[in-house]
């Protein structure tokens, strides 16, 4: 395979540039706005373009076949596809080039969907003209492109899993069973994470501690490298070769080399602010986790007594710290509200309500909710059971969030709201005790986020590359996510995510080497005058250094950001695949004078 | 397998029709109906684009059936969309 | 008459090439495992390739599915069989033996070039199941534009036996007398990814989903919204009218004991919201109403998606729809009992109504045979370790992925398929004693 590629690239050097242009309809996503035929006709007139075609779905098999056939039969040696965003299909088409025996980097993906048809609906002529310019720029770029080879690095067959909760243990075990070395790092003094706080779990009614023991015993019997009371001091390196420094409780540092990292750093409970539904001001207002802990060891009884007083009326309020609305709810520390649904609290609340009624059958229970989201396997049963057992449900909206007023005698409180279920009647609910169904927030991991430049979403959870294409991978090559560090999930969902992460790590490390895109800085040593301006700009330790009086690049550490390129006076540095020469060509094409009459769509 | 290969498609059809017997006739009847329906619709939109309710009125067919045929003939390039007439699209023979 | 049984061997047999089966196959094949992937339909891609756009990113479904379809089709470690049924899987001495039948397409796949001339020549029109009968296909046709593989299927039951297709075929690949091909396969592990069906649209009698042409199913709505949909735009089936007023009835197939579906189907709120958003994009002046009890937007980014839909002007009405009838112009009339004000139930007329049907398993072991896996009360295949290893079935070495274990959305399905792949890979390693 390697040999084949090399002969191919040598051949290309002496060959004339023959560009094939393919314009995708995206089944109407593009062609409803852009006149794809006009784009094809305009591009046919461009120098170097030997073939231009349009097709309903270029990414489909018949679409890819058009390209492959033209490479083989018509000696096309540069390919431009004008279609969707390259994040979706650049690799799809590169693979097609490889199958046709062409260097996969002689490919340019032009985005005429997100950057054109989707944002210029109703401006069809202008969108078509834009598509022509963008595609022409792609042609100019690829015409100046040399064949490139991927950067190949060795891959360490060892994985560091950060976080010893259920997801972390689950991922660690799966990886270890797969034959990889695993170091499992836990900040606390025991494994199990948030699951240790739980009593029984829905819908199986297993004891959470049994689930933890099941996993922990497996971890122990497999003799995984488990580091309790340890934190991450520093992570350096790159995919295949991360250097992870681990600090133990005596501040001793140990180093582990890992090919990949799995983050399973979990969640924190939303902490209500002081006074939120009386929380922190009244002793009878508690959060759901606090309440669960409280009743866990209470024996069954006719009476429920708390702080020496009998509780007759118990109210639960849903969506505390979740599904917040700007202008209605108090923002969090970063100025944003928690817009997201915390997914598990509806079922968790109803699960707790049933458990509470098992112990204290005489309690009056009120449930104040926005929507009941008992979505999963067996969840609806808890809702139905609670209704049958006489729990009174009140439904509030963001316009009428329950108002908390402490009772004059200080023993309880009244919650006032408009109840949707009784046609917006204003109701006052007497509560001797109030339980707040608090949501999830990501665990505080700003040191890791900063150190590794991890992407987070507006919800502050770690942000996957794409929820469907790459749901358990971060944009950082070689770093996977498992469980609630990504967003609210229950134990089942966390374990599934951990299994999926393990699959991605196994794929990554199944070979001894890893291929990376070659879009990194290259120095023309003849042009470099050794001024060192570039060194000051490089943020990636070890990526750029001086030797023999000119700048050198470590391709494995360089991320191709281009900061060095911008400051180099003699234009000695270029990013492979994105050279200054290519940019010049693209800019000329985009800013070309009036389109020739023939190019302007009718 | 060897033996089947030797049969030309006309021979295959002949044998299968014989096996099918009366069933063949039913299908031929249906085919005739299908051709008739298409012809009736195409005749109405030959010179002038018309909407589904207009075609239904002209042909005496019900709107749902007309629309299904328009859909079918659109897909197989016998009919094209013309202008919008009120809440409807007017179709024309290609 | 039929050819000798073909023998095949693989590390893992994957049954079903929807998004779950595709993902599981790729996650295993990329680790070097040999996969035999069997799909009963003419094309891979499952239900997902049939959708318009997908929530919450509004990517077009094709754009997300086709790369995986192409990767599977070209993967050197994946042996793909389409239009093929698995009849029986047995576990013998720790290995799985499968009896498989490749159904006749009535053409020689090695000769077919996918040129569609047969389809153009064919004179018999049939309802197109890919468009859920809204559109038409021919008695010989390729399933859809981006189908993989691009071979047509001839529907012998409907074929007129006129020979037009065979005459038009440039490679003489049509074979009217093709027989089913029997295949025996041996595999070390099995992943079942057989997917879901929607609840029957006729199930709730008072909604008349089978009687009224303008009361449609969610998958039909997907086709109306899809690029290259049957009508080339959003129109209603009864007369091609572009609707001004569209309603969605939530929980029309779920959370309803009378239908035998007491559970929540998890995706209906989100697909209805998504469809409503797409409709408001293509029909900016239309009134769009969603009648619902609870909006369950619980996944990552889903609540924000719901709030966006509200901001776009889509009407969310907390109400029960008691029954549906229609007027003489096939306009559906909904009997609406609103929750928010104490008015009497009222009749509301819309141009087009979508019933949010629920999910039921497509394959049920005790009904359909093949392999005796345990099922739960909801009739979905049961996980024997739901919390920790959701893909584990009651039979050692058989793993489940996607909606066959319960309703779930695409994101959850893809994640679970990855987890099933991990379990299968580790099981194989254990079996090999390494």
Question: What does it look like?
Answer:
The complex is a heterotrimer of chains A (602), B (94) and C (434). Chain A has 16 helices and 32 strands. Chain A has 602 residues and is α/β, with parallel strands linked by helices. Chain A has a five-stranded parallel sheet with strand order 10-7-6-14-27, with helices on one face. Chain A has a five-stranded parallel sheet with strand order 16-25-19-20-21. Chain A has a four-stranded parallel sheet with strand order 2-1-3-4, with helices on both faces. In chain A, helix 10 crosses helix 11. Chain A is globular and about 90 Å long. The radius of gyration of chain B is 19 Å and the shape is elongated. Helix content of chain B is 65%, strand content 14%. Chain B is built from five helices and two strands. Chain B has helices at 2-6, 9-20, 22-44, 52-59, 63-75; strands spanning 79-85, 88-93. In chain B, strand 1 (79-85) and strand 2 (88-93) form a beta hairpin. Chain C folds into three domains: 8-102 and 180-195 and 362-434, FAD/NAD(P)-binding domain; 104-178, Alpha-Beta Plaits (2-Layer Sandwich), CATH 3.30.70; 200-358, FAD/NAD(P)-binding domain (3-Layer(bba) Sandwich). In chain C, 22% of the residues lie in helices and 25% in strands. Chain C has nine helices and 22 strands. Chain C has helices at 19-29, 61-74, 117-121, 164-168, 218-225, 268-282, 302-311, 365-368, 410-431, and strands spanning 6-15, 35-38, 53-54, 59-60, 78-81, 84-92, 95-102, 125-127, 136-138, 140-141, 153-154, 181-192, 196-198, 215-216, 245-249, 287-292, 315-326, 332-338, 346-349, 352-355, 359-361, 398-400. Classes of the chains: A alpha/beta (602), B alpha+beta (94), C alpha/beta (434).
Q: Quick gist of this model?
A:
The complex is a heterotrimer of chains A (602), B (94) and C (434). By secondary structure, chain B is an alpha+beta fold.
